[in-house]
Amino acid sequence: MNRTVKTRTAKAAIYEAPNTPFKVKEYPLRPVKPGEVLVRIRMSTICRSDIHSYEGRRPNPCPGILGHEIIGTIEEIGKGVETDMRGDPLKVGDRITWTEYFYDGACYYRDILDMPQKCHGVRKYGHDHIDEDPHLLGGFAEYCYIVPGTWILKLPDDLSDEEATPLNCGVATMVSVTEAAAIGVGDAVVVQGLGLLGLYGVALAKSRGARLVIGLDSVPDRLHMAKRFGADLVVDVGKSKPADVVKQVRAACRPDGADAVIEVCGVPDVIPHGLEMLRIGGRYVLGGLVNPGADVTIDANVLVKRWITMRGIHNYHPRHLIQALDFVMANRARFPFKEVVDSKFSLSDLDTAFKRAAERSVLRAAIVP
Ligand SMILES: [Zn+2]
Q: How far, CA to CA in Å, does 187 sit from each of 11, 96, 174?
């Protein structure tokens, strides 16, 4: 008797090379191994770094599946996975988010310095070659394997997919950035760039107790949205000379400039202006310059004489994912998080979604496979 074993498969939109159309293909779904979880993807959003990869500005293995801002429903749980990172039991059918990165093994950075997000050999979802098992490790697909060395977090039922999907990259990163900027009660804070990171940065700064938050961008919709995310003042940097923007910001941050400036626009040229906005002893945190070649000239004497602390932040600690969720849950009536994901596309429409996201005609494009 000839019994055919039917292999389950899942669709994925494949990134074959920079600047070429995505191709939807099928890949086999195998049973989970110990420590793994298989999720059916509910939603993935296009992060600015996906666009950087797609446009060839940062190296990413091809062919592969892009997308790391993902949420999904558990379909299979491997042996040994019993609870999420907070200790809540996990079962098939649970809706979850997870750290955008994973690393399984001993590492000096994780074990000694408590920087798991910077382990040598850390890997990220949406950054792998499709040919390697388990193939499905990115967001723009029907399924994703969550592999050992990932922190999983269960999502509360009343949180919408739109509010939940940006948690594991955008929101958690901004928890990390605003923590590094040591934003506290009474601070005056400037946010350079009001994309998704900037908007959450504004809201987080307000909820950390900032008395004044100033948002800078040149896209009118974003300036308007920043107001709704808690910005006290927004400045259209496309309409004034940098020196005038600095003047306006310093005048608003009495008596002598901002306590903290956060860069999340990805443009190195804004750094000298950001430095000029700070008071003596101010803090400058860079979060947006994720591509190599972000050269800029600054007068380092300013750092010395004005006691400036300058710091870069990349990725986030697992605790920031929990904080991101708790922050969104606690503030969803205060800020319009629901409106951040403002467009939805199917897997076969990924090209259009990337085009819209790249030209910034949408704030966060979501893929619903
Ligand atoms: Zn991202």
A: 48, 34, 17
Q: Cα of 68 to ligand 1 centre, how many Å?
A: 6
Rounded to whole angstroms, the Cα distance separating 195 from 360 reads 9
pTM over 0.90: yes
Closest CA to 149 of 126, 181, 117, 173: 117
Cα of 315 to ligand 1 centre, how many Å?
Answer: 9
Q: Phi-psi category of 241—alpha, beta or left, where left has phi over 0 and alpha has psi -120 to 50?
A: beta
Place of tokens 């890949």: 27
- The DSSP string of 72-92 is EEEEEE-TT--B-TTS-B--T
Residue 92 Cα to ligand 1 middle (Å): 27
- Between the CA of 170 and the centroid of ligand 1 the distance, in Å, is 6
Ligand 1 center from residue 46 Cα (angstroms): 8
Digit-coded pLDDT (tens) for 246-303: 999 999 999 999 999 999 999 999 999 999 999 999 999 999 998 889 999 999 999 9
**What is the rounded CA–CA span in Å between residue 319 and residue 163?**
19
Alpha-carbon gap, residue 309 to 307, rounded angstroms? 7
Using CA atoms, how far apart are residues 135 and 261, in angstroms rounded to an integer? 40
Burial letters for 143-174: b for 16+ Cβ neighbours within 10 Å, e otherwise?
A: bbbbbbbbbbbbbeeebebbbbbbbbbbbbbb
